[in-house]
Amino acid sequence: MLLGLTAFTTQQKQKEISIRRVLVANIAQVVSMIVRNYLWLALIAVVIAFPVAWYFMHNWLLMFPYNAGLSFVPFILSASVIVITAPSTATFYSTKAALTSPARI
Q: Does 30 have pLDDT greater than 80?
């Protein structure tokens, strides 16, 4: 889903990216502009989803007589995967859009 959303967003912003490139913005500036937005969205998703998930998982595990408890390791690992995957996907598509010639749009 993230892959499709990133591809769709960069396709929608293709004209903006081309105008920025014509007005002497380098590729790193264009890529950082788009990646920053996705990184913030990923961090907001982590901050909202993890407490909710921890609450429901903790309550679900309480109904078992023998439970191992709930540690923060899976949350930290999944947050790191999210924070690495979202910017890398955005970097790929925004670099692809920034390298496209403005005359082709």
A: yes
